[in-house]
Amino acid sequence: MAKFTFTLDTKYFIPLAVVAAGAMIAIAILYTGGVKIAAVKPEVGIAELKTGGEPYLGNPDAKVKIVYYGDFQCPFCKRFESVALPEIKSRYLDSGKAVFYFKNFQFLGQDSVTAGIAGECAIKQSKGNLDSYWKLHNAMFEKQDAENAGFGSADDIKNLVRELNLGINLAEFDKCLDSRETEEEVLADTTEGRNDGVTGTPANFINGKLIPGAQAASVFVAEIEKSFSQ
Predict the structure, then answer these.
(1) Run of H or E including 210
(2) pLDDT number for residue 44
């Protein structure tokens, strides 16, 4: 496989993985924040992807394990979650055939990190009830604004949490968010993502194979189906 390294002036790019044995081209759209990208599709051992304590959907004992790195300000993450994820959920997560983990890759600025901290604070306050976390997670993507436009401020997120009626201790949530108590966990996720080969978002690993970008649901379905027979 030939590897091409290039720099784009824009934040949108199409990475091309060229295989010498044929003309098979993998196309994906990622949000990269203008960083330098190497067009590679790494695979990571399933055991190497750390998921302990991460929010999930589906059956944690399932054979197929999907690990999704995302940024709350990433427009392509929003597209993935509104287009491909619902089909993945209905076909594989609701039935318990697969498990889907979310990991922070909050690299687009301070608002991203603050939103990631809020998500981790919600997990701490939910005491194992991940429904509260996922309600906030989905709402933060729905409220997504222009990059670092201010939506991810602590005050805006506090107001959103109150609108959602998450059933968590609001005083403790506010304290956690104001003190940035969970920031280390957010940054650790992002570091793990870089170590796993993530360079932009969304990035999904299906049983260790990286599927980059907001691709069509059919791409994820095909890889999940393949994983059942491996």
Answers:
(1) strand 209-212
(2) 54
Q: What share of the chain is helix, strand, coil (3-state, %, to 5)?
A: 40, 20, 40
For 11-32, the pLDDT digits (tens) are: 333 333 333 333 333 344 666 5
Residues whose CB is less than 8 angstroms from the CB of residue 66 and which lie 6 or more positions away in sequence, other chains included: 88, 98, 99, 100, 101, 204, 205, 206, 224
Q: Are 27 and 14 in contact (CB under 8 A)?
A: yes
Domain extents for the chain? 43-228
pLDDT in tens, 174-220: 999 999 999 999 999 999 999 999 999 999 999 999 999 999 999 99
Backbone torsions φ then ψ of 64, nearest 5 degrees: -95, 125
43-228: CATH number: 3.40.30.10
- Would you give the DSSP letter of residue 209? E
Q: Is the dihedral of CA 192, 67, 11, 158 positive or negative?
A: negative
* Angle at which helices 170-178 and 154-164 cross, to 10°: 160
